[in-house]
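Dock iron/sulfur cluster; give full complex structure.
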Amino acid sequence: MKKLLSVKKLKVVYDSSAGKVHALRGISFNVKKGEIFGIAGESGAGKTTICRLLMGFMEKNAGISGQVDFNGDDLLKLNYKDLYRLYGRKIGFLPQSIASLNPLLTIGTHITETLKKNLKIKKKKILKKKAIYILDALEFSDSRQVYNSFPYQLSGGMNQRALLAIAFCCFPDLVIADEPFTGLDPDVQNRLLETVRILKDKKNISMVIVTHDLKVIEKICDKTAIIYNGSFVETGETKDVIKTPLHPYTQSLIKAMPENGMIPTWGFAPGALYDDAGCSFQPRCPTGSKEKKKHIINSPASVGNNHYVWCLNVKNQESVKDLL
Ligand SMILES: Nc1ncnc2c1ncn2[C@@H]1O[C@H](COP(=O)(O)OP(=O)(O)O)[C@@H](O)[C@H]1O
Ligand code: SF4
Ligand SMILES: [Mg+2]
């Protein structure tokens, strides 16, 4: 599979009145064509910052370094005009909440305006035909009725599905999703995730999904990175990361899942102001917290099948290659 997105040593430091906020501390990952890459971690870990950068949106107070290569373009170096051309057409965005739908516009208008802006289609008949096509693909039972409906006339699940229609209507190469489908009834969530998979398989679309919900990761992502306090602590194929987690933070997230008894992780993340060398999980770590010496991690351990773990307790089983 061809590489579509390659993020290298991405660092983001926000300037704030409280000091330097280290939102991302040098993360790297690749996404191939047609692949879904999930990034999971708790609130404040840096997930939305990743989405913002992938969408070309840089906060004024953000100091950014690294590389974000999308199909040969470094997104961090493109000018506004080039970025504008890319977004919507080549990169779509799936927001978390249906609050991003305009209550004064029908679902049809949301979709046709997106098509008009990105694909430069003017003919109303063609716009409507394309909008109905995507609504049909998203398995609405009555696409024409949904096309003419305002958001308040539809259920929460249907509006979520409408967000999918807007994100996917131009069939972009990549869709970025920030906490999609959170807080939904499990049946609705399952059906939406299944629809996403069918749609992205049909059109070979890649996705980056960030979430705190490991269920979403488990159900839909091919590869997964676990992020803690701005750093990746474990990456690999989803089945390996979820079924054989090796970092104590990943293990604690798995234990916190409802089916595993919802056991919370002891203590709190040190926060993005933390600027100390060494493993930032140490104060919460069953092994590391007992030791006075700082655990400094220079490189991740490679445990096979592109599974990497940033923990001194995990021993290398393979030489560390070009990451992921
Ligand atoms: N514009 C900003 N200025 C200062 N700090 C910010 C800004 N945006 C986010 N942060 C901080 O950066 C860290 C990461 O935030 P965010 O990317 O939103 O994490 P997540 O989405 O995982 O909750 C947090 O500590 C947050 O408070
Ligand atoms: S590096 Fe040390 S402190 Fe950090 S998670 Fe591993 S054992 Fe714990
Ligand atoms: Mg967020």
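Observed: The two ends are 13 Å apart (CA to CA).
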